[in-house]
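TEACHING EXERCISE
Course module: macromolecular assemblies
Task: Read the component lines below, then compare them to the predicted structure of the full complex.
Student: A.B.
Group: 4
Components provided:
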Amino acid sequence: MLFELVTPSVQHAFEVVGIFVFAISGALLAVRKNFDVFGMAVLAEATALGGGVFRDLVIGAVPPAAFVDLSYFFTPLVATVLVFFLHPQVERITAAVGVFDAAGLGLFCVEGTVKAHQHGLGLTASVTLGMATAVGGGVLRDVLAHEVPSLLRWDRDLYAVPAIVGSSIAALLLHFDALSGATSALAAVVAFTVRLLAMKYGWRAPRAWNRRSTATEEI
Amino acid sequence: MLFELVTPSVQHAFEVVGIFVFAISGALLAVRKNFDVFGMAVLAEATALGGGVFRDLVIGAVPPAAFVDLSYFFTPLVATVLVFFLHPQVERITAAVGVFDAAGLGLFCVEGTVKAHQHGLGLTASVTLGMATAVGGGVLRDVLAHEVPSLLRWDRDLYAVPAIVGSSIAALLLHFDALSGATSALAAVVAFTVRLLAMKYGWRAPRAWNRRSTATEEI
Amino acid sequence: MLFELVTPSVQHAFEVVGIFVFAISGALLAVRKNFDVFGMAVLAEATALGGGVFRDLVIGAVPPAAFVDLSYFFTPLVATVLVFFLHPQVERITAAVGVFDAAGLGLFCVEGTVKAHQHGLGLTASVTLGMATAVGGGVLRDVLAHEVPSLLRWDRDLYAVPAIVGSSIAALLLHFDALSGATSALAAVVAFTVRLLAMKYGWRAPRAWNRRSTATEEI
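Instructor-supplied answer key:
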């Protein structure tokens, strides 16, 4: 039984940590965009919970966990208060956003895949929803902040691939009935590591074949 | 029983008025953005119904009221026709957008909180969804119109706070079983008034501590 | 019985074709925006499935078809691979986007109207959801690609009107119990033709009365 391998409390702690680090990334972007404290809170909540709310709406788990479990709602507010008083240098902000974002990415892709599968979706759809859980909040963050989503940009390091890797490992673990707290943590760490390596070595995905234009349109 | 205190017809009239004023705000922004009449209608519908549809999806009230009750759907079209023939001066438009928006804000935050609570959500989640009902349409309006959401901007007067005030009063009324047509109208008027005062006196929320940069990034 | 007139397999083939052409339009926009191959895939999936997922969430058909039927998910990936190796000239891209988009528009507005009605929504709401199915993916595409939605722009040829025409014909066919594979294909072709004519002859919708400003704000 999945239930016995990943206990609810382990999964819950997993989720709160992921929510916290994503919220940090949202609040830090709000600071960079010069938004006020409420803008910070909204962007923190949207980044942290957006992917999960989308997943829960899709799998029919309503009301979504974010509206039932108060710890999901208050965690981004704690992150907002922390960032509010953090006085970060712009450079430190940029680096921190990336690392925190990578951690959230790894945590959420695994958690999303598992939850989608628990609700009866197939493995392919679970991988997709795991990826959507992981990247959905960041896309919503960028759309709300009026930026081109990092996820789509050519001149940004690999972002979707780490999530796909983490989700796929989780799906394989589910398929072979090998999911446990340890193996799911491993899947998250692999995704996190792939993302960090992509950032460190500037790994990028190719653009359309023979597309060699250097012009980027008003990005 | 809540049902006896706020009769369906009172709540319905409440909602249609809120939908109308929000739709006006959406259609006016479409005029400012130079959109065509269909763009006006889409923005009017999105502004008026977006927050409520989001709330209904979250609480599992599908199909959302906006797709069941035809008055919800046709009211924004009436607002679109009115705005289409209104020939407003740009200055008059800006002022009108603000006042209509404030009225919708007050009406929707109370209505959203009450409906979320009626569907079994806790008081905190109901306050959140009340706020989301009130501000969600405006955020969707700004995202669709390709603008930075007013809700998030530092250089805009308080917008989230009035909604939080109205939602919280509604939640307190629910908690103390004191909700009636009169008290819920009072909550809406308080939120409306707080928003008008914020506009009149330029009340703003602080940005992150020691954040004194005046540069705003391509907003 | 509707079921006997439009067999599931006919409706399914209908949908896969629509998904493919919409995905082409999304992937081509991603190329124009200089996104990488994952950005192309995300935009292809969002354009192709966004409207249908929205419709399914609204009518309570969860998980949405896009997450159940693998052909819906893999079709946009095929489109992405095709576009990736297509080496298109920029001019050819622009024209192709338009024609493919028009085909998807016609297919989806009919399919969305029929599915919404099958799930018990009224004819007006079904027309609205049919239109939303058809234009929702394109709006999501433009929002994700950080562009002003084509749907709203005054200086773009009629886009909502063809969808409304197709949805309305489908609703009339439903009302008079005359829906069949042939008549629904006809409705789709009419919508497609109206859109092509609008593109060919530059049909546009009016802006607000006496609005003669030529200034477009930072679009």
